[in-house]
Specification:
By secondary structure, the protein is of the alpha/beta class. Helix content is 38%, strand content 14%. The protein is globular.
Length: 404
Amino acid sequence: MDIKPLQTEQIGIQTLEKRLMKSESEISLKIGLPREVSNDERRISLTPGGVSILKANGHDVFIEQRAGEEANFSDQEYADAGAEIAYSIDEVYQKAQMIAKVAPPTKDELDLLDDNHTLLSALHLGNATELFIQTLIDKCITAIGFEFIKGDDKEFPIVRMMHEITGSMAVQIGAHYLEKGQGGPGIMLGGISGIPPATVLILGAGITAEYAARTALGYGAQVFVMDNDLARLRHLENALDRRIITATANYQYLSSALQHADVLIGAAMQEGERSPCMVTESMVASMKPGSVIVDTVIDQGGCISTSRPTVHSKPTFTKHEVIHYCVPNIPSNVARTATYALNNVLVPYFLAIGDAGGIKKCLWQNTALRNGTYVYKKHLTKKSLANIFDMPFRDIEMLIASHI
């Protein structure tokens, strides 16, 4: 296939269109895309190309004015694709039955939800509250979290795509803040002939860590990866041709590695749960002055004790002379790429819901969406959330089977 340079970002959606244009929807969905208002969020859930596919299959899309602007998609592009432009957020929520967001709803947005709505968005475990969950329960919302969507192949498709972006971006960020003009010590990540490269230490050995390691190796950095899952470490070593150094994340190895690290990337996480805190404050204090921490799992609580959430407009703070970058939505900084990634996962799910005849029938048939649902028919359906907030839960398969 002859790919011209300016066509590359479109290939995914072109392939998607060829595969999905022919679908027989049982019902017409009314999908709402409100403009994101929180934490410098610049992504949107669907591209104009995705909207055109949904319209071709009989579904209606209502998008708030300027909702795609930060991802460089104009209202005209969405209108040309068949979307109806809404001139207020209230109009989106009134006309739509399915609300597709990136960030979790704000308090004001929660007030706009009612029992006719199905919500698809991230949950951000690190910031989620019992009040937020209880509000969704009381309003009888069907809530599906990006972090929980898992298919029969045991993959988390949205999480994986965002983690690929996050891992690559984390190294770019670390390299940027090592520069003297950004408060760093003035070190080039890859070094040059006769001068050794910087050291990048990655905590965790999952998807984010893999893509961070690939990118760091591409820069020419020396890369250490630490985790307590030996199987993951072996997999990563083999995938990267043993060009990285791995070690278990025990106190002795971790303390020693931190003293030599120029960039620390926190990527330790467990899917659907809060991140384990692996680095204590005293460990951070032992790091070199001017070194950089990029905590990529801050949206799940962070894996470094000195981390606290920041935003794109003010992304860093310094503690113990170490620069901390702790923005929860790192992919938002490449909003257009991230929006294509979200679109390519979400469009097939919307078509599946339409084909099944509604969300209830689709949850019974579709493993990924069933796994993704955390509130259904006034019940919390995720045991991990029930444990975090000490709330009762009901298994979603039992709820669906009992026709509640």
